[in-house]
Amino acid sequence: MAEARSISRDRKEIDRADANRPVRIRKIGVGDLRQALAQGLDDFAQQPSHLVFLGLIYPIVGFLLARASMDGEWVMLLFPIMAGFALVGPFAAIGIYEISRRREQGLDTSWRHAFDVLRSPSRLSILLLGVLLMLLFVAWLAAALVIYRRTLGFYEPAGIMELVGQVLTTRAGWALLIVGNGVGFVFAAGVLAISVVSFPLLLDRRVDAFTAMGASLRAVGANPGPMALWGLIVAAALVAGSIPFFVGLAVAVPVLGHATWHLYRKVVER
Fold first, then answer.
1. 32 domain-assigned
2. Which residue intervals of 21-47 are DSSP H helices?
3. Residue at 110 is within a domain
4. Which CA distances in Å does 68 have to 117, 123, 169?
5. Which residue from 94, 146, 174, 229 has the highest number of Cβ atoms inside 10 Å of its Cβ?
6. Are 215 and 26 in contact (CB under 8 A)?
7. What is the distance between the alpha carbons of residues 211 and 189, in angstroms, rounded to a whole number?
């Protein structure tokens, strides 16, 4: 009992030290991005079957949402749903970050440990930040629907190919593409700014959600070029993984998740 109390007291002292210690941000370059991606691929290669299992959650949910949107009048939301995956990706990959963290420390990396985040001291902050990203995802879908109504009105396509033809061959369709991509870029840039290192930081140290988001904003401010390139890499990987039928996300999401952890290690001082 005395030993347990001592361990608990030591844990609380470490947590207080974590909370009081400033989060220091480093400058990185393109070479660091390449190295983070290589390390992410290496993590994935160690246990690909386990990580594909975890990654399957992502494409299955995406497929179900897309399938639901293809029924009736909601077919116009298929593309916003696909694009919006980048908004919830940092939260969806939280278990992947945990696997990389454990491998870094030489601990067991069985897929079951991805759920250890449920016992993390920062789990409430992780949940709060996750809810924020989900709200941004919903806000993006609402904005996309408004843009659709403002450009194509109440036109309801019979299917995907008819919608694609309408978008690519009419002035209203081009307006939809330009305005929609512009607004989507603003959402994606905002999510990147507040989440690029915040979730790994919450797993690594006991800080609150606002401290984590502040550190992420400072990381982007200190490294605008590399972070912009990182955002493009993530977006390209998610788009490629979504074609066809979201199957590739079972690989893209774990690799990006591992790489994000290693990017965090390069940006935030230990």
1. no
2. 30-46
3. yes
4. 30, 31, 26
5. 94
6. no
7. 19
